User: Fold this.
Amino acid sequence: MSKKYGILGFGLRTGLGLLQYLQDADIDIFDGGDLQAIQTLVTTYKKPGQHVQVFADDVACLKKNIGTLLISPGVPAEHPIIAQAHAWGITVQTEIDFSFDRLQCPVLAITGSLGKSTMAKMSFDLLCMRYKNVFLGGNYGTALVQALGKGCDHAVVEVSSFQLQQSTSFHPKVAVFLNLYANHLDRHGSMDHYLYAKQRIFQNQSKDDYAIVSADQPELIPLGCEAKILTFSTQADQRADAYVKDESIYLFGREITLDFHGHPKQQVLALFLLACIYKIDIQKVKEVLAHFVQLEHRQEKIVKGDNVFVNDSKSTTPDATLFALTQFQAPVHLMMGGKGKGLDLQDFAQRLQQYENIVSITVFGEMAPTLGKVLSHPNLVQVKNLDQAFAQVLTVLKSGDVVLFSPGFTSFDQYQNIEERGRHFKKRIADVPV
Assistant:
């Protein structure tokens, strides 16, 4: 008799990926969403004759005959079904652990609050210079389970705090922890708990593994980390293994003249350290940077005449907006707004004043009234929506200026997701005459 699995939280990425992999097993699915839509997906993708049942995420639906309960990243550790499974002795495992335990290749894992998707894609492009079959996925867009049975030489896996929070066996050969800023505190409760979840990327590493972290945030390195630690600094900390000073990179003391091609410096420095670990020629790194296309909605630059429009719809925290501002010296017109997360904005407002190249700030959406009160700028305008915000910016835009659409808040006040919001912004750009 085949082993029976449960899947708690069924989405198009993790849940569907597990269903497709477990086609020789019976499965119970538990989800709090649209059960009819899930049933339609199950009917489409399950193996003929395979027994799959769909239930609400109610603890009363759980049965003792399940051997392993697999958890999707969006499910909190306190979920009653997880507690009941533990009480009954059912094995509880995250998708990232389940997939890693069956993976037949080394893993390069990347986490951080900002820029991890860009880092993952850059790393993938770099490793493709050395390996024939590299998998890219995890939180990036394709669940790690999709790599199983594909004969991969190496896997590049973006991992979120949600994926790491309940992970126990995930063991990357190389782990990159880019940065940490306030985010997901509604899930983790505090910055300490958020940091702890992120640091679990290192928990199984040994002295034969590598950890890459920011020397500018030394608290990211957990006590007792056994891996070889390499550090980078965007603040010219010469103690770091890789740092930037006067627009040059210093890699283990060697100066490298480089065109950053507008890419964030944290990712570029980490990429050079990866090249050293994987013994990939520095020239290959330069090729990756020269040909890298910025990911959609992530500081995506669109040139229109003499102006640069930046679609940073992925920015859903004030810290993400501050991070985006570090990339520009030209005059910036900042567009912000969306649905808030209940964060204290006083510190953000003070730090925003340090950017003297901001020539206007236009705020829109649910957060507009709050931002209008807390921010201080001579050219601060409050409007209702993105269309009005864009029209306002065009009235003050001058040749050579940058329009930075970095909302700093979630999209759920006026959009289904950050992708819809970003596409709306890009549509407005397309309407701008050259």
Q: What stands out?
A: The chain has a mean pLDDT of 92. The chain has 15 helices and 20 strands. The domain at 4-89 is CATH 3.40.50.720 (Rossmann fold).
